[in-house]
Write a structure and sequence with these properties.
17% of the residues lie in helices and 15% in strands. It is α/β, with parallel strands linked by helices and 331 residues long. The strands form two sheets. Strands 1-2-3-4-5-6-7-8-9-10 form a ten-stranded parallel β-sheet. A two-stranded parallel ribbon has the order 11-12. The relative contact order is 0.07.
Length: 331
Amino acid sequence: MFPSLTTFKQMSNTPGNILKKIEKAQEEQATELYLYWHPELTEFPEEVFALEQLEVLRVGGSFEENCTIEVIPDEIKALKNLKELHFGFAQVTTLPDALLELKNLKVLSLPRNLFTEVPEQVMKMTQLETLSVAGNLLESFPEDMSAFKDLTVLDISGNDLDSIPASVFQLEKLERLYSNFNLLTEVPGDIRQLKGLKELQLMYNDISTVPDELMALPKIDQINLLCNPINMLPESMSTSNLKSMALNIEDEEAKVMMNDMTVGRALIYGMREPSKASEKYFRQIRYPKISNVPKEIVRQGTQAVKEFLLNLDLDDPSLDIDIDIDEEMNL
Protein backbone atom coordinates (compact mmCIF):
# COMPACT_ATOMS: atom_id res chain seq x y z
CA MET A 1 0.00 0.00 0.00
CA PHE A 2 1.47 3.33 -1.05
CA PRO A 3 1.30 6.47 1.10
CA SER A 4 -1.77 8.66 0.86
CA LEU A 5 -1.79 12.03 -0.87
CA THR A 6 -1.76 13.70 2.57
CA THR A 7 1.43 11.85 3.51
CA PHE A 8 3.12 12.82 0.25
CA LYS A 9 2.16 16.48 0.75
CA GLN A 10 3.83 16.61 4.15
CA MET A 11 7.23 15.98 2.56
CA SER A 12 6.52 17.63 -0.78
CA ASN A 13 8.65 19.89 -2.94
CA THR A 14 5.92 20.09 -5.57
CA PRO A 15 4.79 23.64 -6.51
CA GLY A 16 1.41 24.65 -5.09
CA ASN A 17 -0.31 25.10 -8.46
CA ILE A 18 0.53 21.53 -9.40
CA LEU A 19 -0.56 20.20 -6.01
CA LYS A 20 -3.96 21.76 -6.61
CA LYS A 21 -4.30 19.87 -9.89
CA ILE A 22 -3.37 16.60 -8.19
CA GLU A 23 -5.80 17.22 -5.32
CA LYS A 24 -8.59 17.95 -7.79
CA ALA A 25 -7.79 14.74 -9.66
CA GLN A 26 -8.07 12.81 -6.41
CA GLU A 27 -11.36 14.44 -5.43
CA GLU A 28 -12.88 13.70 -8.82
CA GLN A 29 -11.25 10.28 -9.12
CA ALA A 30 -10.01 11.44 -12.51
CA THR A 31 -8.41 8.86 -14.78
CA GLU A 32 -6.34 11.47 -16.65
CA LEU A 33 -3.88 14.03 -15.27
CA TYR A 34 -2.19 16.69 -17.41
CA LEU A 35 0.99 18.18 -15.93
CA TYR A 36 2.74 19.27 -19.12
CA TRP A 37 3.77 22.93 -19.55
CA HIS A 38 5.39 23.05 -16.12
CA PRO A 39 9.10 23.91 -16.63
CA GLU A 40 9.25 24.84 -12.94
CA LEU A 41 9.22 21.15 -12.01
CA THR A 42 12.55 20.02 -10.53
CA GLU A 43 11.41 16.60 -9.32
CA PHE A 44 8.77 14.14 -10.43
CA PRO A 45 5.63 15.05 -8.40
CA GLU A 46 5.38 12.01 -6.13
CA GLU A 47 1.87 12.95 -4.99
CA VAL A 48 0.75 11.50 -8.31
CA PHE A 49 1.54 8.00 -7.09
CA ALA A 50 -1.40 8.14 -4.68
CA LEU A 51 -3.77 8.37 -7.66
CA GLU A 52 -3.93 4.66 -8.37
CA GLN A 53 -6.95 5.11 -10.66
CA LEU A 54 -4.93 7.03 -13.27
CA GLU A 55 -4.95 5.69 -16.81
CA VAL A 56 -3.32 8.63 -18.62
CA LEU A 57 -0.49 10.73 -17.15
CA ARG A 58 1.37 13.62 -18.77
CA VAL A 59 4.30 15.25 -16.94
CA GLY A 60 7.00 17.62 -18.17
CA GLY A 61 8.09 21.03 -19.34
CA SER A 62 7.08 22.91 -22.47
CA PHE A 63 8.18 23.56 -26.05
CA GLU A 64 9.84 26.74 -24.84
CA GLU A 65 11.60 25.38 -21.77
CA ASN A 66 12.40 21.91 -20.47
CA CYS A 67 11.82 21.13 -16.82
CA THR A 68 14.80 19.85 -14.82
CA ILE A 69 13.44 16.47 -13.73
CA GLU A 70 16.25 13.91 -14.05
CA VAL A 71 14.67 10.80 -12.53
CA ILE A 72 11.38 8.93 -12.75
CA PRO A 73 10.98 7.36 -9.27
CA ASP A 74 10.44 3.65 -8.74
CA GLU A 75 7.10 4.51 -7.13
CA ILE A 76 5.69 4.87 -10.63
CA LYS A 77 4.88 1.16 -10.30
CA ALA A 78 1.95 2.12 -8.03
CA LEU A 79 0.01 3.26 -11.09
CA LYS A 80 -1.08 -0.23 -12.10
CA ASN A 81 -3.94 1.05 -14.26
CA LEU A 82 -1.79 3.36 -16.34
CA LYS A 83 -2.33 2.94 -20.07
CA GLU A 84 -0.52 6.04 -21.31
CA LEU A 85 2.61 7.74 -19.95
CA HIS A 86 3.74 10.96 -21.60
CA PHE A 87 6.91 12.26 -19.97
CA GLY A 88 8.79 14.85 -21.96
CA PHE A 89 10.67 18.12 -22.15
CA ALA A 90 12.87 17.05 -19.24
CA GLN A 91 16.43 15.89 -18.46
CA VAL A 92 16.03 12.14 -18.06
CA THR A 93 18.76 9.82 -19.39
CA THR A 94 17.59 6.45 -17.99
CA LEU A 95 14.35 4.73 -17.02
CA PRO A 96 13.56 2.71 -13.87
CA ASP A 97 12.92 -1.03 -14.04
CA ALA A 98 9.70 -0.26 -12.16
CA LEU A 99 8.12 0.73 -15.48
CA LEU A 100 8.13 -2.93 -16.43
CA GLU A 101 5.48 -3.54 -13.78
CA LEU A 102 2.98 -1.38 -15.68
CA LYS A 103 1.51 -4.25 -17.65
CA ASN A 104 -1.41 -2.18 -18.97
CA LEU A 105 0.82 0.49 -20.51
CA LYS A 106 0.16 0.83 -24.25
CA VAL A 107 1.46 4.34 -25.00
CA LEU A 108 4.92 5.54 -23.96
CA SER A 109 5.96 9.01 -25.09
CA LEU A 110 9.38 10.37 -24.07
CA PRO A 111 9.96 13.47 -26.23
CA ARG A 112 12.79 15.94 -25.66
CA ASN A 113 14.76 14.14 -22.98
CA LEU A 114 18.45 13.24 -23.08
CA PHE A 115 18.42 9.60 -24.15
CA THR A 116 21.38 8.61 -26.30
CA GLU A 117 19.85 5.21 -26.99
CA VAL A 118 16.44 3.60 -26.66
CA PRO A 119 16.38 2.52 -22.98
CA GLU A 120 16.69 -1.20 -22.35
CA GLN A 121 13.48 -1.09 -20.33
CA VAL A 122 11.59 0.07 -23.40
CA MET A 123 12.86 -2.93 -25.32
CA LYS A 124 11.16 -5.19 -22.78
CA MET A 125 7.81 -3.38 -23.05
CA THR A 126 6.71 -5.29 -26.10
CA GLN A 127 3.03 -4.69 -25.35
CA LEU A 128 3.38 -1.06 -26.49
CA GLU A 129 1.18 0.21 -29.30
CA THR A 130 2.67 3.72 -29.47
CA LEU A 131 6.27 4.76 -28.82
CA SER A 132 7.83 8.21 -29.12
CA VAL A 133 11.49 9.02 -28.56
CA ALA A 134 11.32 12.26 -30.55
CA GLY A 135 13.77 15.07 -29.89
CA ASN A 136 16.36 13.07 -27.97
CA LEU A 137 20.04 12.48 -28.68
CA LEU A 138 19.90 8.98 -30.11
CA GLU A 139 23.27 7.79 -31.34
CA SER A 140 22.00 4.33 -32.19
CA PHE A 141 18.77 2.41 -32.58
CA PRO A 142 17.98 -1.20 -31.61
CA GLU A 143 18.86 -3.71 -34.30
CA ASP A 144 15.88 -5.92 -33.52
CA MET A 145 12.33 -4.58 -33.07
CA SER A 146 10.55 -7.74 -34.17
CA ALA A 147 9.16 -8.43 -30.67
CA PHE A 148 6.92 -5.37 -30.90
CA LYS A 149 4.01 -7.20 -32.49
CA ASP A 150 1.40 -4.55 -31.64
CA LEU A 151 3.30 -1.31 -32.30
CA THR A 152 1.24 0.86 -34.65
CA VAL A 153 2.79 4.32 -34.07
CA LEU A 154 6.51 5.18 -33.90
CA ASP A 155 8.00 8.67 -33.62
CA ILE A 156 11.79 8.99 -34.00
CA SER A 157 11.79 12.63 -35.10
CA GLY A 158 14.49 15.11 -34.14
CA ASN A 159 17.39 12.74 -33.47
CA ASP A 160 19.78 13.62 -36.32
CA LEU A 161 19.34 10.14 -37.79
CA ASP A 162 20.81 9.83 -41.28
CA SER A 163 18.59 6.90 -42.22
CA ILE A 164 15.45 5.12 -41.10
CA PRO A 165 16.78 2.29 -38.90
CA ALA A 166 16.51 -1.08 -40.65
CA SER A 167 14.77 -2.61 -37.63
CA VAL A 168 11.80 -0.29 -38.16
CA PHE A 169 10.85 -2.36 -41.18
CA GLN A 170 10.31 -5.35 -38.88
CA LEU A 171 7.24 -3.69 -37.35
CA GLU A 172 4.52 -5.60 -39.13
CA LYS A 173 1.61 -3.65 -37.66
CA LEU A 174 3.10 -0.18 -38.00
CA GLU A 175 0.51 2.32 -39.30
CA ARG A 176 2.12 5.69 -38.60
CA LEU A 177 5.82 6.53 -38.82
CA TYR A 178 7.21 9.96 -37.95
CA SER A 179 10.84 10.80 -38.73
CA ASN A 180 10.76 14.57 -39.09
CA PHE A 181 13.75 16.83 -38.37
CA ASN A 182 16.39 14.23 -39.12
CA LEU A 183 19.12 13.95 -41.76
CA LEU A 184 17.50 11.46 -44.12
CA THR A 185 18.54 11.58 -47.76
CA GLU A 186 16.20 8.89 -49.05
CA VAL A 187 13.18 6.75 -48.39
CA PRO A 188 14.65 3.24 -48.59
CA GLY A 189 13.08 0.57 -50.77
CA ASP A 190 12.58 -1.55 -47.64
CA ILE A 191 9.62 0.68 -46.86
CA ARG A 192 7.72 -1.89 -48.95
CA GLN A 193 7.79 -4.21 -45.95
CA LEU A 194 5.43 -1.97 -43.97
CA LYS A 195 2.27 -3.28 -45.59
CA GLY A 196 0.01 -1.67 -42.99
CA LEU A 197 1.53 1.82 -43.14
CA LYS A 198 -1.11 4.54 -43.50
CA GLU A 199 0.81 7.72 -42.67
CA LEU A 200 4.44 8.71 -43.21
CA GLN A 201 5.86 12.04 -42.03
CA LEU A 202 9.38 12.97 -43.12
CA MET A 203 9.36 16.77 -42.86
CA TYR A 204 12.62 18.70 -42.66
CA ASN A 205 15.03 16.13 -44.07
CA ASP A 206 17.14 16.12 -47.25
CA ILE A 207 15.09 13.79 -49.43
CA SER A 208 15.01 14.57 -53.15
CA THR A 209 12.98 11.70 -54.62
CA VAL A 210 9.89 9.72 -53.72
CA PRO A 211 10.31 5.99 -54.45
CA ASP A 212 7.73 3.85 -56.23
CA GLU A 213 7.90 1.38 -53.32
CA LEU A 214 6.28 4.00 -51.09
CA MET A 215 3.44 4.63 -53.51
CA ALA A 216 2.85 0.90 -53.86
CA LEU A 217 2.00 0.42 -50.18
CA PRO A 218 -1.59 -0.82 -50.13
CA LYS A 219 -2.84 1.33 -47.22
CA ILE A 220 -0.72 4.49 -47.48
CA ASP A 221 -2.95 7.55 -47.77
CA GLN A 222 -0.98 10.37 -46.08
CA ILE A 223 2.58 11.43 -46.86
CA ASN A 224 4.21 14.60 -45.54
CA LEU A 225 7.49 15.60 -47.16
CA LEU A 226 7.40 19.32 -46.48
CA CYS A 227 10.76 21.09 -46.41
CA ASN A 228 12.65 18.49 -48.42
CA PRO A 229 14.33 19.31 -51.76
CA ILE A 230 11.94 17.14 -53.77
CA ASN A 231 12.69 17.35 -57.47
CA MET A 232 10.89 14.30 -58.81
CA LEU A 233 7.51 12.65 -58.24
CA PRO A 234 7.01 8.99 -59.15
CA GLU A 235 4.78 7.98 -62.03
CA SER A 236 3.04 5.58 -59.64
CA MET A 237 1.58 8.50 -57.71
CA SER A 238 -1.34 8.59 -60.11
CA THR A 239 -2.45 5.06 -59.19
CA SER A 240 -1.74 5.14 -55.44
CA ASN A 241 -4.31 5.35 -52.64
CA LEU A 242 -3.08 8.75 -51.46
CA LYS A 243 -5.63 11.12 -50.00
CA SER A 244 -3.09 13.71 -48.89
CA MET A 245 0.48 14.49 -49.88
CA ALA A 246 2.36 17.54 -48.63
CA LEU A 247 5.60 18.58 -50.27
CA ASN A 248 7.70 21.45 -51.49
CA ILE A 249 8.89 21.27 -55.07
CA GLU A 250 12.45 22.58 -55.03
CA ASP A 251 11.55 25.75 -56.97
CA GLU A 252 10.54 28.69 -54.78
CA GLU A 253 7.48 29.47 -56.91
CA ALA A 254 5.91 26.15 -56.00
CA LYS A 255 5.96 26.15 -52.20
CA VAL A 256 2.51 24.69 -52.11
CA MET A 257 0.66 21.88 -50.42
CA MET A 258 -1.37 19.24 -52.10
CA ASN A 259 -4.73 18.96 -50.33
CA ASP A 260 -5.43 20.75 -47.08
CA MET A 261 -2.83 19.61 -44.56
CA THR A 262 -1.69 22.37 -42.19
CA VAL A 263 1.50 23.03 -40.30
CA GLY A 264 1.41 23.70 -36.56
CA ARG A 265 2.83 22.45 -33.30
CA ALA A 266 3.76 19.11 -34.82
CA LEU A 267 6.59 20.83 -36.64
CA ILE A 268 8.36 21.82 -33.42
CA TYR A 269 7.53 18.64 -31.52
CA GLY A 270 10.89 17.14 -32.33
CA MET A 271 12.99 20.29 -32.09
CA ARG A 272 15.48 20.12 -29.26
CA GLU A 273 15.88 23.82 -28.52
CA PRO A 274 13.09 25.91 -30.09
CA SER A 275 12.97 29.57 -29.12
CA LYS A 276 9.92 31.59 -28.19
CA ALA A 277 10.10 33.22 -31.60
CA SER A 278 10.11 29.87 -33.42
CA GLU A 279 7.16 28.61 -31.43
CA LYS A 280 5.18 31.73 -32.31
CA TYR A 281 6.20 31.33 -35.96
CA PHE A 282 5.03 27.74 -36.20
CA ARG A 283 1.80 28.56 -34.41
CA GLN A 284 0.93 31.20 -36.98
CA ILE A 285 2.19 29.89 -40.29
CA ARG A 286 -0.23 28.06 -42.55
CA TYR A 287 0.88 26.94 -45.97
CA PRO A 288 -1.42 27.61 -48.91
CA LYS A 289 -4.12 25.08 -49.49
CA ILE A 290 -4.91 23.83 -52.97
CA SER A 291 -7.32 21.31 -54.31
CA ASN A 292 -6.14 17.99 -55.70
CA VAL A 293 -4.10 18.12 -58.85
CA PRO A 294 -6.62 17.39 -61.62
CA LYS A 295 -6.72 13.72 -62.59
CA GLU A 296 -6.11 14.54 -66.22
CA ILE A 297 -2.80 16.15 -65.21
CA VAL A 298 -1.83 13.25 -62.95
CA ARG A 299 -2.45 10.77 -65.76
CA GLN A 300 0.15 12.56 -67.87
CA GLY A 301 2.86 11.64 -65.39
CA THR A 302 5.47 13.23 -63.17
CA GLN A 303 6.59 16.04 -65.45
CA ALA A 304 3.05 17.20 -66.07
CA VAL A 305 2.31 17.32 -62.32
CA LYS A 306 5.49 19.28 -61.69
CA GLU A 307 4.68 21.78 -64.43
CA PHE A 308 1.17 22.19 -63.03
CA LEU A 309 2.60 23.01 -59.60
CA LEU A 310 5.27 25.32 -60.99
CA ASN A 311 2.75 27.33 -62.98
CA LEU A 312 0.16 27.77 -60.24
CA ASP A 313 -1.13 31.28 -59.79
CA LEU A 314 -1.26 31.75 -56.02
CA ASP A 315 -3.75 34.58 -56.52
CA ASP A 316 -6.22 32.29 -58.25
CA PRO A 317 -9.29 32.09 -55.93
CA SER A 318 -10.27 28.72 -57.38
CA LEU A 319 -7.27 27.17 -55.60
CA ASP A 320 -8.72 27.92 -52.14
CA ILE A 321 -5.61 29.69 -50.89
CA ASP A 322 -6.53 31.22 -47.56
CA ILE A 323 -3.49 33.40 -46.75
CA ASP A 324 -0.78 35.45 -48.43
CA ILE A 325 2.23 33.19 -47.93
CA ASP A 326 4.76 35.97 -48.57
CA GLU A 327 3.15 38.13 -45.90
CA GLU A 328 2.75 35.22 -43.49
CA MET A 329 6.40 34.23 -43.79
CA ASN A 330 7.59 37.86 -43.74
CA LEU A 331 9.40 37.37 -47.01
